[in-house]
Design a protein that fits this description.
With 335 residues, the protein is of the alpha/beta class. The chain contains twelve helices and twelve strands. The protein starts with a strand and ends in a 7-residue tail after the last helix. Bound molecules: nicotinamide-adenine-dinucleotide and 2'deoxy-thymidine-5'-diphospho-alpha-D-glucose. Pfam families: GDP_Man_Dehyd.
């Protein structure tokens, strides 16, 4: 099996490549990534010499390059490449539309042209919008995205669906909740808070800190994608979630307590505009149809992740000393 993984130098993509190469000795993986601010080939340093792995530096919106790569023969596309950070989408929506919508369309066209056997689209629970205090997102929940990021992901989901219906492209769409774990870029809540706490810097909590996310360890997400890839039904959407609902303030306090740091590092800052209040996933379909269940409890996974960041200071210091610094020093980009 030859897989084309897009966005493999990012957080989930790099974890997925490592997971698949470790599990399937004969699979070949081509990683295509534009190396935006979020793409970091150091995430794959331990496997870059693996003979079953290769890297192509290219932008998914570049149709000529995508067709050239697919010409070399690809069975399955696993599509992670995206602009992924909600706050950045509020500051600059256009790159989100370019990559997440137009880039997906370029890949879909190329997939049809080169008769790819399967197009796996990695999407997000954010396409469903926001929940009140009760209820769960199901695969049938209407799409109701609230940020430019989630609107661009919803648009790409609909394009993938349309290419299945219109052109018969074999597809799966997965919609996952908030991932955490090793190699997550330190702009996202958990790594940002861990690193700031280690460095005794303020921990910026948006609004009242009562927004709820459903946390899933990235390895559990990779296992779910592996199952969908091999056993998923053609044309189907699968929700993936950890049943680990926590308020942001709970997560932040758990991190401070694990690192023996005082709560007064917490700084409440101006809320994110359009901030979704609560996400919660009903993962019954993937559990019952494909036998998936998460291995990590949030308590164990969070401790492991904190240890990882403590032991990989070099990794995040190199990120912090680069372009990221200008972004992160703003306590809340909306003030
Ligand atoms: P990330 O930001 O860490 O990585 C994105 C990767 O895509 C980077 O390596 C970047 O260089 C690459 N990329 C961006 N634009 C590109 C382009 N035009 N051409 C080629 N490569 C490009 O993102 P992530 O957190 O690993 O998320 C991966 C995917 O999973 C995204 O599609 C995201 O929507 C989805 N997702 C993420 C989460 C989460 O919690 N992080 C949850 C559900 C779904
Ligand atoms: O639900 C899946 C989504 O999870 C993915 O599709 C996105 O790609 C991913 O970025 C993530 O989106 P969120 O907006 O939920 O993640 P983020 O880490 O940015 O924020 C998590 C929560 O923490 C959210 O309620 C906003 C809040 N937050 C975030 C940051 C960065 C803060 O309070 N302070 C912060 O500094």
């Amino acid at each position: 099996m030859r897989l084309l993984v897009t966005g493999g130098a990012g957080f989930i993509g790099s974890n997925f490549i490592r997971y698949m190469l470790n599990k399937y000795a004969t699979y070949q993986i081509v990683n295509v990534d534009a190396l935006t601010y979020a793409g970091n080939l150091e995430n794959l340093r331990d496997i870059e010499m693996n003979p079953n792995y290769s890297f192509v530096h290219a932008d998914i919106t570049d149709a000529v390059k995508m067709n050239r790569i697919l010409q070399s023969g690809v069975d399955v596309i696993v599509h992670f490449a995206a602009e992924s950070h909600v706050d950045r989408s509020i500051l600059n929506p256009s790159t989100f539309l370019q990559t997440n919508v137009m880039g997906t369309q370029v890949l879909l066209d190329a997939a049809i042209k080169h008769k790819v056997r399967k197009f796996m689209h990695v999407s997000t629970d954010e396409v469903y919008g926001s929940l009140g205090p009760t209820g769960f997102f199901q695969e049938t929940t209407p799409l109701s995205p609230n940020s430019p990021y989630s609107a661009s992901k919803a648009s790409s989901d609909l394009l993938v669906r349309a290419y299945h219906e219109t052109f018969g492209l074999p597809i799966h769409i997965t919609r996952c909740s908030n991932n955490y774990g090793p190699y997550q870029f330190p702009e996202k809540l958990i790594p940002l808070m861990i690193i700031n706490a280690i460095e005794d810097k303020p921990l910026p909590v948006y609004g009242d800190g009562q927004n709820v996310r459903d946390w899933l360890h990235v390895e559990d997400h990779c296992a779910a994608l592996d199952l969908v890839l091999h056993n998923g039904r053609d044309g189907e959407v699968y929700n993936v979630g950890g049943n680990n609902e926590r308020t942001n303030i709970d997560i932040v306090k758990s991190i401070l307590s694990a690192l023996n740091k005082p709560d007064d590092l917490i700084q409440f800052v101006t809320d994110r505009p359009g901030h979704d209040r609560r996400y919660a996933i009903d993962a019954t379909k993937i559990r019952t149809e494909l036998g998936w269940s998460p291995k990590y409890s949030l308590d164990v996974g969070l401790q492991q992740t904190i240890q990882w960041y403590l032991h990989h200071k070099d990794w995040w210091e190199r990120i912090r000393s680069g372009a990221y610094r200008d972004y992160v020093k703003i306590k809340s980009p909306f003030q």
